[in-house]
């Protein structure tokens, strides 16, 4: 231990450009360190103790990075919140995480303001001016920029969408390590991909920082001494421009990005120097074999894939692995194990699909405040998120289907139950089922099938009225893209919805098996 970790690196080389904001502003490591230190001193004055939490509703960029770096050196849990959520959804996370401080960027002032009553007014802070919030300056300006004493490693606590509609915080036990040593341990994940520390390396942050993997890969790259280059909104040509401009070596992408990149005109694709790319890592959704093949042909052998969950454990496929086993999501990490079981929880033979269970040595987690949910996904010390797959005779994992009902659209997990609950409230709805249907660009899009209440006329007008009722209650990314009406919902006598019966016709000829 002893050469990696942002705080150590920043003290050794304060002039290193550690981050570049989406507007191109460069931030030196020494300045970032000073900001993170002042944040720790300020929040300690506010009364935060190790084990406490803070929430950030902030766009991609250094404001969120400062919160992350402060929490990780003071033993706090940092929860970055999805900025597509509505006020009540944000307020739920602030309250459920028991946050002792809530930070909001003016861009999200409206919904952040609606969430404000979830926390005492003295604990709300704005990066800018928001009515009802204290400016961050009140917290940090008078504070010293010296390294705080009693430093201890904190952690991020991401919220994963709950199948019952309410998200759950994935909370790990704090290690008690020195923050830099803890950060150095985190770099193990990127070393699995062969990634090397030090300059000149740059990591392109392509997706919103509230995703677990985005925080994990970006944060870890920073702890290895890589410069973080933030994108505000993803754009295919801008991605290529930034890769050339900052000599990007690594990034974290989803297959939707690949599809958009491949759709660029050939002269645009050929106009940028991408020779710096070394570890372009993707995950979060199944990648069609032809798409991955085309990316490897264009970018060369720098496209890596993995399969994992917020809860811990996973697989990795190098470019060579994938070419030898097209379609695989890889082999288990050295510190992870896979188990494929049938409905009776008995291991299945090689090549037979079953539920995927994983475990990771030395890592335990719980869904905050939900022991029952934590235990439900467990099998001895393995856990599952409910995905279906099989292992080949060399131990390579292939996904066949996803968690029965989960919709993965553009790399984001969307749970139908939450959407169904909101639609069911409408007086003209007798019954509703929500599921994913094929979408060329996003992988899946959200479809609602509705049984209209007696006396209501099914049709486009009613569909519009029902969707409009979701405004302010459900994030727009969760709204159904299309609504079909049905005379009677297929349910078993016990009330169980036969969703597959509804879903299958939409998938004919598409093969939902990946």
Attribute tags:
single chain, alpha/beta, Rossmann fold, GMP Synthetase, Chain A, domain 3, 29 strands, 24% strand, globular
Bulk shape: globular
Annotation, overall tally of beta strands: 29
| Radius of gyration, in angstroms, nearest whole number | 23 Å
Kindly provide the name of the CATH class of the domain at 29-178: Alpha Beta
GO molecular function: long-chain fatty acid-CoA ligase activity; medium-chain fatty acid-CoA ligase activity
InterPro entries: AMP-bd_C (IPR025110), AMP-bd_C_sf (IPR045851), AMP-binding_CS (IPR020845), AMP-dep_synth/lig_dom (IPR000873), ANL_N_sf (IPR042099)
Keywords: Ligase
Pfam families: AMP-binding (PF00501), AMP-binding_C (PF13193)
Write a structural description.
The chain has 514 residues and is α/β, with parallel strands linked by helices. Among the domains are: 29-178, Rossmann fold; 407-507, 2-Layer Sandwich (GMP Synthetase, Chain A, domain 3), CATH 3.30.300.30. The protein is 30% helix and 24% strand. It has 18 helices and 29 strands. The strands form 7 sheets. The chain has a 9-stranded mixed sheet with strand order 2-1-12-11-13-14-15-16-17, sandwiched between helices. The protein starts with 5 loop residues before the first helix and ends in a 7-residue tail after the last helix. The mean pLDDT is 90. It is an enzyme of class 6 (ligase).
């Amino acid at each position: 231990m002893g050469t990696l970790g942002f705080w150590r690196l920043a003290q050794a080389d304060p002039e290193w450009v550690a981050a570049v904001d989406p507007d191109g502003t460069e931030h030196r490591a020494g300045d970032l360190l000073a900001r993170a230190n002042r944040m720790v001193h300020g929040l300690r004055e506010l009364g935060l103790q190790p084990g406490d939490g803070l929430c950030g509703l902030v766009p991609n960029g250094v404001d969120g990075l400062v919160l992350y770096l402060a929490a990780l050196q003071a033993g706090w849990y940092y929860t970055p919140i999805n900025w597509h959520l509505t006020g009540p959804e944000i307020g739920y996370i602030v309250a459920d995480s028991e946050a002792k401080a809530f930070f909001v960027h003016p861009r999200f002032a409206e919904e952040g303001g609606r969430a404000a009553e979830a926390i005492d007014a003295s604990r709300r802070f704005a990066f800018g001016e928001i009515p009802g919030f204290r400016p961050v300056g009140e917290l940090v300006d008078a504070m010293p920029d010296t390294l705080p004493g009693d430093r201890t490693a904190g952690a991020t606590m991401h919220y994963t969408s709950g199948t019952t509609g309410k998200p759950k915080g994935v909370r790990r036990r704090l290690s008690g390590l020195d923050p830099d040593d803890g950060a150095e341990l985190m770099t193990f994940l990127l070393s699995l991909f062969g990634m090397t520390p030090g300059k000149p390396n740059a990591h392109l942050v392509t997706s919103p920082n509230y995703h677990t993997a985005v925080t994990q890969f970006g944060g870890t790259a920073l702890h290895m001494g890589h410069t973080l280059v933030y994108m505000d909104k993803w754009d295919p040509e801008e991605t290529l421009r930034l890769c050339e401009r900052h000599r990007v070596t690594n990034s974290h992408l989803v297959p939707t990005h690949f599809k958009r990149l491949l759709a660029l005109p050939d002269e645009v694709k050929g106009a940028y120097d991408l020779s710096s790319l070394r570890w372009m890592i993707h995950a979060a959704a199944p990648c069609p074999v032809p798409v991955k093949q085309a990316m490897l042909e264009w970018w060369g052998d720098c496209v890596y894939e993995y399969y994992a969950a917020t809860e811990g454990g996973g697989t990795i496929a190098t470019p060579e692995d994938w070419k030898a086993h097209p379609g695989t999501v890889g082999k288990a990490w050295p510190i992870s194990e896979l188990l494929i079981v049938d409905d009776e929880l008995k291991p299945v033979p090689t090549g037979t699909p079953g539920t995927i269970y994983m475990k990771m040595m030395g890592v335990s987690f719980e869904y905050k405040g939900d022991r029952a949910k934590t235990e439900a996904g467990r099998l001895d010390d393995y856990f599952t998120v409910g995905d279906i797959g099989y292992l080949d005779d060399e131990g390579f994992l292939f996904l066949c289907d996803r968690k029965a009902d989960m919709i993965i659209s553009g790399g984001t997990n969307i749970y139908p139950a939450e959407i169904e609950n909101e639609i069911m409230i409408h007086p003209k709805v007798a019954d509703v089922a929500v599921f994913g249907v094929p979408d060329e660009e996003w992988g899946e899009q959200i479809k609602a099938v509705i049984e209209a209440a007696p006396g209501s006329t099914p049709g486009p007008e009613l569909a519009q009225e029902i969707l409009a009722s979701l405004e302010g209650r459900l994030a727009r990314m969760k709204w159904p893209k299309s609504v079909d009406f049905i005379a009677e919902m297929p349910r078993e006598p016990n009330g169980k919805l036969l969703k597959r019966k509804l879903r299958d016709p939409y998938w004919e000829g598409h093969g939902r098996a990946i």
